[in-house]
Amino acid sequence: MAVGATAAGAVTPEAIPATPFPLSQVRLKPSIFLTSIEANQRYLLSLSPDRFLHNFRKGAGMEPRGQVYGGWEARGIAGHSLGHYLSAVSLMYAQTGKPEFRDLAAYVLSELKTIQAKHGDGYAGGTTVGRNGQEVDGKIIYEELRKGDIRTSGFDLNGGWVPLYTYHKVFAGTLDAHQHAGLTDGLSVATGLGDYLGTILEGLSDAQIQEILRAEHGGLTESYAELYARTQNPRWLTLSQRLRHRAIVDPLAAGRDELAGKHANTQIPKIVGSARLYELTQNAEDARIARFFWQTVTRDHSYVIGGNSDHEHFGAPRQLANRLDQQTCEACNSYNMLRLTRHLYGWSGDAALFDFYERAHLNHIMSQQDPQTGMFTYFTGLASGLGRVHSDPTNDFWCCVGSGMESHSKHGESIYWKRGDDVAVNLYYASTLNAPEAQLEMDTAFPLSDQMVITVRKAPKSLDLRVPGWCDAPVLRVNGKAAGVRQGGYLRLTGLKSGDRVELRLPMPLRVEAMPDDAKLIAFLSGPLVLAGDLGPSDQPWEGVDPALVSDEAAPQLVAAGGLHQYRLGTRGKPGDLSLTPFFLQHRNRTAVYFRRFGSAEWVGEEAVWRQAAKDRADMAARTVDFIRLGEQQPETDHAFDGTPNTATITHIAERGRLIQKGYLAFDLKITDGPLVLQVAYAGRDRNKSFRLLVEGQVLATETLPGEATVARNILTYLLPPALTAGKSKVRVRFEADRDQWAYVYEARILRAAKV
């Protein structure tokens, strides 16, 4: 996907700074967006703040009032969901005006104030960490940091699972409660949180802080910057600036894309922090960082739905065709990219920025939530044949559940903006604006309709209607007469008065978008919406061939199927015809988003290879019991990874992995009954290495590796003796070496043995 704020050769519109109308001044009307908000309301009201507060109270020496939730909330990262929940109920209050959500925010803040008072130093946290075989309160990590005891492999901090990330979520939640729910306690609790962590950071050198920042720390830069904005205390600005992660932001400031191999959503909040710092200090470097990062991610690292990352990591720029699987497009990434886009738009008022915002919001964020159950996806898999996996209401609480609570509490936040004396409409979502500057009522079924009607109740000085980049021929009428002047990505209307009826039609053409690195791997869009083939219900298996297109046309065409966004492959489809409808609506379907394109002569020679490749992929998926991608944060956490410090992650290439060095690395893999094999992926070039592979403490192989410079990966398979697996649900896999080997290992997989 390529989205630029200004097309090459185009005249750059004059920058007009913009600010969004407060969420409290916008109300959603019946639409898919209101349906989403209502589903999220039901979910938020079903949750118990006391269960989220369990560890917070326990760590302060107080009796918990509710049992801790399951999933991530029952692990070391516990507490992150409380922060998201606090943000979500505060946003929901602003979006709907319903007092029960403000009451929930007020209750959480009162509890946090009590907890801070018990600690006596501003601390409030729910994280835990293992110490001497016991799970203890995570505050111990912060006190170790205070003494200069800093240990991190990049994925942990002093043995804790991203404690600063969780700290930020609570910090951000208190600031959101202050802003969106109007609760002064939000600012006082935020100040206490800032002070506790601040006293630790202020006692450390810059080098020590940069070492801490190797571990994921969320948006602490932004939170301290925001605390400064609200209090004008320069202490918070200094801390925000010291929390700029130089290893990440310095290359960006210099215009270098060094994102390959990095955990994507670890980086995006850092850049949001740079954007906020720019707004407060006008430091041009922070603006360069934010703009270059945004352009790089949207142009070189994003898929057609606007999402980015595969298995949570960036790859090499513009190399996406081989990165399609079940773990593309983490939802948190798009949540944060939309936040960054709002900052950049605020600086310039450039309508083209909303081409990305609209794409990611409609196709990714709106696909993340099942509107019937209110549950959320973690990833949005874009390989053919995949369905969506939604969260359990009380037993998952992934990061994307937390950001999902927020995303689906604020669909009205970016519709209406102030651009100087103008009111701009950037998203065509059915809604009302009730502000001192203007009162507008928008009726539309967009994006499922191409027509909008805006009724003016109180006229602004001028009304600017965004013209999306996908629309070549907008039609605008006021009271039935053609109107509007095209200016800088907008149709501008002046001289409006109360009672005027503004009618806008945005024809939605069908278009093709190819992968940046493979012109023959294409996706289809209808107006703003990505289309996807319907491969059947997601609760039923799919073992078909990836759909393909056989066409000699310069731009392959689809067959219209009777309604807006309704198409078919027709006779061009292989292995047959297929219905294509908006991707985001297919919540319970297996889908095909990208299609391999063949010429008719090419298909004759390639069909057998195509079918065999699909069969091989399906066979691998069916045989896989469990697998781990080494060097990646979430898989290693999920599989209880452990190792000596020198088994470093591989970070100088786009593909993550681990080094086999003197010492060990180990992890768990799930198993099942029946003959099993362990398949391990090593670097193809590695040879004459010497290490041991153990399973359940027994040596399975003493490996040397054959090495072949022309092979990217060396895949070796080891038979697991039944005696090692009998009666077990998982096994411990361990690599040991007596000296440094510098051998790369990427992945380990438990497979059912192939049938002979």
Automatic annotation (TrEMBL):
Residues 423-508 form the Non-reducing end beta-L-arabinofuranosidase-like GH127 middle domain. SUPFAM superfamilies: Six-hairpin glycosidases. One of its GO terms (biological process) is carbohydrate metabolic process. Pfam families: Beta-AFase-like_GH127_cat, DUF6805, Glyco_hydro127M. It comes from the Bacteria. Residues 620-751 form the Glycoside hydrolase GH146 substrate-binding domain. Residues 25-412 form the Non-reducing end beta-L-arabinofuranosidase-like GH127 catalytic domain. InterPro entries: 6-hairpin_glycosidase_sf, Beta-AFase-like_GH127_cat, Beta-AFase-like_GH127_middle, GH146_SB_dom. This is Glycoside hydrolase family 127 protein. It comes from Asticcacaulis excentricus.
